[in-house]
Amino acid sequence: MRNLKIGVRLNLVSLAALVGLGLVLALSLFRLDAVMHKGVETSTRHTVEIGHTLLSHYQKLESEGKLSRAAAQAAARDAVKAIRYGENEYFFILDMQQHMVAHATSPEIEGNDVGQLTDANGEYLFQQMVDTARTNGEGFVSYHWSEKVGSEPKPKLSYVKAFKPWGWVISTG
What we know:
Number of helices: 3
Shape: elongated
Oligomer: single chain
Number of strands: 7
Strand content: 15-25%
Strand order of the largest sheet: 4-3-7-6-5
Structural class: alpha+beta
Radius of gyration: 24 Å
C-alpha cells in the first residue's frame, strides 16, 4: 500500500466505504421488509379475531335461547358480510366441508363447494384454509389471487380461524 499513489489510496478507501454503505442499506431494507411483514400478519390476525368475536356473540344468543341456530347463523353471516375495512378488505366464511358460507364481494359462490378452486399457482387455497383451521385452530395461508378477472395475480396472506360451535372458518387477507 506504501507504493500506491495518494489518489489510488483515496479511491480504495472511498470504494470500501461505498461497499460498507451498500451492505448496511441492504441489511436495513431486509429488516424493514421483515418488520412490515410482521405488522401485516399481526393486523390480519387481529382483524380475524374481531370477526370471530362477532360470531361468538351470535352463537351466545343461540345458546341463551334468544335466537334459533338458523336465525343466529343468518344474522352472523349478514353482519360479517357487511364489515369492510382498509380500502377494499372484507371477511369470508367457509364451513369444514369447504363450502362458502358467506362472501362479502362474491355472494354468487355462497353455498358452493370451493374445495377444488385453485389460486394462480394451482394451489387448493380453500382446502389449505380449512386444513389449517382443522389442524391448528387458526393460522396463516399464503396464495396468489386476482382481484378482478384478467388482472395480474398478487400474493395474498390470509388468516383463518375455526369457529368450532358451528363448524365454520372465518378469514380475511
